[in-house]
Specification:
With 210 residues, the chain is mostly helical. It folds into two domains: 3-20 and 134-196, Helix-hairpin-Helix base-excision DNA repair enzymes (C-terminal) (Endonuclease Iii, domain 2), CATH 1.10.1670; 29-130, Hypothetical protein, domain 2 (Endonuclease III, domain 1), CATH 1.10.340. The protein has helices at residues 3-16, 29-38, 44-48, 51-54, 61-67, 69-75, 82-99, 108-112, 119-130, 139-148, 156-166, 169-185. It is elongated and about 55 Å long.
Length: 210
């Protein structure tokens, strides 16, 4: 896909999504971090069903650490992988308290050293929480990038690097949000309807449903 087409693609997405934001519910960077850890192999909807009952009382590492692993596991049991996630979150709280003065760090290395935090989670926190222009590649972003021809890759790491290389600087900060929301609601894995797609002219997919 040539640079002019890529710029036009992002411009059309920006027009269709003028105020894109994460669909996870959170009030601070710690809540964002916890919500993203919880969202691994789960839906934002399932996470949002739990966190409004959790965050009002436990919105800091110290408060959640005092709650403890077993009570936390019980509170998040409706979300997949609850035992592992509860253990990772409590361990993360301990590290934030001991090494980061109770704050979520704003650099990748420190984030990826936290239990339960991989590159995608770190990218989401850096982008959503700190406004850093990076792109988190989940299944939706990976699908849109490959299907449209924007940044085809054999794996998420390759696609992420290609997206960072081809995305114009003006769109880089919001690119993750445009792509994930477009993939979640328009360019879905199955039963997608290209007649509703604002980037259908830019898309290089050869099996469009029109």
């Amino acid at each position: 896909m040539d640079p002019k087409t890529i710029n036009r693609l992002y411009r059309r997405l920006s027009q269709s999504l003028p105020n894109p934001r994460s669909e996870l519910e959170y009030a601070n960077n710690f809540e964002l971090l916890v919500a993203v850890i919880l969202s691994a192999q789960a839906t934002d909807k399932s996470v949002n069903a739990v966190t409004p009952k959790l965050f009002p009382k436990y919105s800091s590492p110290a408060a959640l650490f005092r709650l403890g692993e077993d009570p936390l596991r019980e509170k998040i049991k409706s979300i997949g992988l609850a035992p592992t996630k509860a253990r990772n979150i409590i361990r993360t709280c301990r590290i934030l308290i001991d090494f980061h003065k109770g704050n979520v760090p704003g650099d990748r290395e420190a984030l990826e050293n936290l239990p339960g935090v991989g590159r995608k989670t770190a990218n989401v926190v850096l982008n959503e929480g700190f406004g850093i222009p990076t792109i988190a590649v989940d299944t939706h972003v990976f699908r849109v990038a490959n299907r449209t021809g924007l940044a085809p890759g054999k794996n998420v790491a390759e696609t992420e690097q290609k997206l960072l290389n081809v995305t114009p600087a003006r769109w880089l900060k919001m690119a993750h949000r445009y792509l994930i929301l477009h993939g979640r609601y328009i360019c879905t894995a199955k039963r997608f309807d290209c007649s509703k797609c604002v980037i259908v002219k830019e898309c290089e997919y050869n099996k469009k449903t029109i």
